[in-house]
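Justification of resources, computational component.

The compute hours requested in this renewal are based largely on the per-chain cost of generating structure records like the one below. Each record pairs the submitted sequence with a full structure-token output. That output is archived, and it is also reused by downstream analysis tasks.
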Amino acid sequence: MIESKARSGAALRAGGIGCAVAVLLPVLLIGGVFLIFSIERATPEGYPDVKPESMARRVTGYSKGAFAALGLDRTLQSNVYDMRKGDENTLDSDFCYPDGLESITDQAEEGAYRLYHRWSVGKVAPREGSSALRSLRDHLTSTGWRITESGVSEQRHERTLKAERDGGYTIALTWEADRRRLSGGSSAPCATNPGWKESDGRYAEPSVGRPPVLTGRASK
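The structure output for this chain reads:
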């Protein structure tokens, strides 16, 4: 009888501990998540300080070299956007968003930006398109770029080439056979604008100016 009561008491104590753990575990988990979130919010993303003008020169410089390497007898004027012809030459910026738990707030990093330079050429014959891809690949591999993607999509009638260097600078080119269009561009990793002020606001876009005229090597 005494032994039975002792076992019953032990079972009740074990059950009580189990219930306490079940109640405390979600609280501890929520507290841990909140602590990690607070630490991440207080820790800067570590983007390098780069003036937008300097970043623009670097990104468009990569584009100029890539466009010349295509070997096309074409010239794209600055700020061209003509989808009827399939031609584009635009420079723009985007916001940078934090990784990890901070991303749930969907708020851009203050003063941070990312530049990208888009360009495309329409009315490109199939032989020119294939040759342009080969020429660009040779140019990229010989100038320190790492090829990250090179493939063919039969369903979409596309061939793609992508490359990366220096911690996040990218160049990409897509040959759309059905549209006879070469679409490419270069982009930069996120950076912090040293000229940004709190009064500018979280979503202030930097002034990046106009893209340069792009000239194919064959048209020089």
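The chain is about 35% helix and 25% strand. The longest strand covers residues 112-121.
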